[in-house]
MFS transporter
Amino acid sequence: MLPTYRPTEIAFVYAVAFFQGIGNIVFPASAAVFKSHHRFSDSDYGLLYLALIFFAILSSLAAAFLVRRIPLKLILLVGIFGYALSQAILALSYPMHSHALVLISISVLGIGFGFTGTAVNFYPTQFFPLHHDAAIIFVHVAFGIGATISPALLALAEHTIGWVAYPLLTALIMFSLATFSFTLPLRATMPKSSHEHMSSSIPFELWLFCVIAVLYALCEATFSNWAVIFLREAKGLPEPTAGFGLSVFWFALTVGRFAASVLARRIGAEKIYLALPLLMILAFLLLPMVSGALPLLLCFSLAGLGCSAFFPLNVSLAMRYFPQHAATTGGLMSAFVMLGIGFASYGIAPLRAYFPLEQIYAFSALYPLSALLIAIRLVRKLSPSMAFYSS
């Protein structure tokens, strides 16, 4: 029997997801600061995400292993403290002009991401067991709202009280959340499994959901982590407009998640899941071809809508189809999504020596196309409501 949760506990988990979004987007939104103030090259910037991918994958897999062995609340607490420490170190790097501290900061962020992601993706299935598609999407809505406002708040801080104040305030809030969590029970009931070893118990189809997570992350990171540089250097837009393009992407992504959480109960989660990659494909093909601020911003809004609920639904459907692995699914998805984000962030930098960003964006349409083909196979096989696709 599932424990009963107080509204304070539910609000707390969604608040953590919100500040996760703020913490994660500080790094791509600060690309110009890293290049101008810290004197980062493209390779230096890409190296940040190599560290992020390593520590995020390591911590996500560790959390997936530990989730049946220690309380889920402890996993969440480690993640929140990781975010707080990361932001504090990032703030310290600014007056010291330190590459090393930025690298340490994003490494600690990776640890926070893995542990927090495992917890916040599983708690909604406990809060709302009959509506966990919408519940998981709303966790990602909270994350998306934080990500949407983060670049604008960062720019505001930079022009008023100073860039360094932003990560300092974020660190203070995350430390406060971690302290407040000691007043909450935040219990969780783990589904029973007859298998002892993860490698032998996870079915092949669940690994395919993990592959889709990688492909999705390649899409999202190509859009978001390189948005400012793409709009400034490839399309010649001024820095404020380029930063606004990143906000437009996250705003559309958040609005799309709101819409999907409502539509999922009316038309079915699987139909939305299979439609969204088509929007990502279209955005990747249009961005290299259009010019001018308004068309480019519209394309990034299309990209945001395409990305919106695809990953939350990927997590939710994997948990629904394989409930005995629901507790470990959050950690696995966090690990594989960071694999894709790291590859897109670090791998694009050396590719720029051979291909323009516009061409890289066009070729990136292969990512959502591949995800769509795998998703169709999984839905046909696993979802009774979509069985008509097989005919």
